[in-house]
Amino acid sequence: MKSGFQNDEKERGLVQKFSIVGGDFHHAGYVSTQIKEILKELGIDSAIVRRAAIAAYEAEMNVVMYAHRGIFTLEVTPEQIRFLVEDEGQGIPDIELAMQEGYSTATPEMREMGFGAGMGLPNIKKNADRFEITSEVGKGTCLNITIFLNQRKSQ
Amino acid sequence: MSQYYHSIRFDETRCQGRMRCLRICPTQAIRVRKGKARMLEEKCIDCGECINVCPNGAIIPLTDPFGELSRFRYTIAVPSPALYAQFGREILPDKILSGLKKLGFDEAIDLAYTCGEVSFAIQEYLRNYNGPKPLISNACPTVVRLIQVKYPELIDHIIPIDTPREIAAREIKRKKARQLEIPEKEIGTFYLTPCPVKMISIKQPAEKGRSHLDGALSIADIYGPLLSAMESLEESESPRHGLESICILGIGWAISGGMTRTLRLRNSLAVSGLAEIIKVFDDIEKGKIRNIDFIEAYSCTHGCVGGSLTVENTYSSYNKIVKLIETLEYEKIKACPDIREVRRRYEQNYYFLEGKLEPRPLAPLDDDLGRAIQKKKIKESLYEQLPKIDCAACGSPTCLAFAEDVVQGEAELHDCVFLWPQKIIQLAQEIIDLVEKTGIKIKKKEQESEEGK
Questions:
Q1: Chain B interface, best mutation among A33, A80, A124, A147, by max B CB count within 10 A
Q2: Given A36, A42, A149, which is nearest B364 (Cβ)?
Q3: Does any CB of chain B come closer than 8 Å to the CB of residue A90?
Q4: Cβ-defined contact of B364 to A43 (cutoff 8 Å)
Q5: Which of the 8 DSSP states describes residue B394?
């Protein structure tokens, strides 16, 4: 179990891993639904849950559409939510281009299903407080998404 | 005593703890403890699924008895259009409304007409709307409560146009009070309801202090008496021309798809059945549903005709509504509210909800996020020990719900039938250890079998 957490943080934080199968459109969205349920259970403010749900869904769909498989790691501490999404797949040759709204390499089939509007990565960035992306062509992509919780208020 | 009014009551004397309700409840709001089902008030959204599955009739919908009418000087029946689908095809709405008067109401009004008006009002609202989409219909109180409880972040998607039943009750009360020169409080308006949840929208409206309806009578309760009343109608009492006021737009509100059909939108969805609604709401939250303007959602499959207090089979009554629309079309009866009149009233805020809907989200594992995280971790580790077959024998609906109940101190881990044998083994070992401490030798099994030879 490697988690990218320091030991003391590991004590305080929640870590859960989910696997995503590339090309499995039937179950696509399952991981982000699970994550949303967990965040609600923890009492995270609903506006933040909404942002997190959208970012998680887009990240999950990226794996489903473009990779062979991926691991989605959710980490929650009292200060922040972090998603680490690592996939094995084709990777992104030009990240700057991929980050532009409207740019998409989706196939006609994917577009038919309502995906591939070129909004995925920009949408994650829009909903995250911190967003890092690294990719290696032919190997895979890693997304590191952080949403801060300091503005959390209880209902 | 309780914060929330519910239209469902559990009768402990009849309950045999047979778990059907527990398994079907879509919000996991039921637990069976000490052999009796009980409701978790904050989780229940009054969908009524449990009423239909209880083999002992121990779950009772709370609607008003007919005797409630005697509290008022003048009484008006406001039947859900689903009532029109409960009888044979030769019995048309005009006869049903006449039958209701024969039954003892001073007046019976056609709600379909107001439904038609509200369809126009929703069109007006959508025309200039720029907020978050899709907008969601509030016609089904279970859907409104589902959003308040489980999807609080979608609360701004609920359309702020009031329901036809409330608007119609408000209007007819004002009108009759003027006409009869009696105070409004002496006029009783009664909704004839296909489901118990309308009762809570009357007793505890989600958004305002008080409903304009005074009560709700179950369609199932009045079905028999109404049928006899209609049979005893004289020819003169059932005027054929009554049909002309039945609004073709509004009748469709009784079935799923009927409302969206009248809105003439390019992109709208009609969803029915709670499980399906939950899937769609999950998709909205993920941002997966785009370019949809309006969602009509009914907790009962196929819409109000599928309500638990209806008599006729859901599919037959769905078909009857469709055929009734065809009949009215054929007879060229197109009683329709005047759209210019609707627009004028719309400008005066006539159709808007009188209060604001607020979310009432479920309590998290803990109010403190740090503690909630710790509880979540314990819950997950408990869950790992469970068989994950969701047998519900422990009295919680799923293994995951059971793990949460244990974390919250509502249940004990050895309530799980798969775990208590291990508890017994552990106890037995403790006893053996205790006996061995005394120095008494325990006869071993092999010795026994040798003796037997």
A1: A33
A2: A42
A3: no
A4: yes
A5: T
By C-alpha distance, which of B300, B15, B37, B48 is closest to B199? Answer: B48
Return the number of CB contacts < 8 Å for A and B: 73
Residue B445: what residue type?
K
ipTM of the complex in this document: 0.82
B282 Ramachandran zone, left/alpha/beta (phi>0; psi -120 to 50):
alpha
3-state SS record for B124-149: HHHHCCCCCCCEECCCCHHHHHHHHH
Interface test with B, best of A3, A14, A36, A54 (most B CBs within 10 A): A14
Between CA B155 and CA B391, with CA B27 as vertex, the angle to 5 degrees is: 160
Rounded-to-integer distance, Cα B137 and Cα B159, Å: 6
Q: What is the pLDDT along chain A (155 residues), one digit of tens a residue?
A: 344 445 555 677 899 999 999 989 888 889 999 999 999 999 999 889 999 999 999 999 999 989 999 999 999 999 999 999 999 999 988 888 888 877 777 777 777 666 666 668 888 999 999 999 999 999 999 999 999 997 544 43
Tokens 């409304």 sit on residue: B97
For residue B236, give the DSSP letter: G
From the candidates A40, A54, A148, which should be mutated to test the interface with B, based on the most B CB atoms within 10 A? Answer: A40
Helix A120-127 vs helix A46-66: crossing angle, to nearest 10: 150
* Spatial distance between the Cα atoms of B63 and B65, rounded to a whole number of angstroms: 7
Q: Burial level of B168, CB count in 10 A (0-12/13-18/19+)?
A: buried
| Amino acid present at B220 | A
Is A41 in contact with B376 (Cβ distance < 8 A)? yes
* Minimum Cα–Cα distance from A75: chain B residue: B373
Among candidates B153, B287, B377 on the partner chain, residue whose Cβ is nearest the Cβ of A49: B153
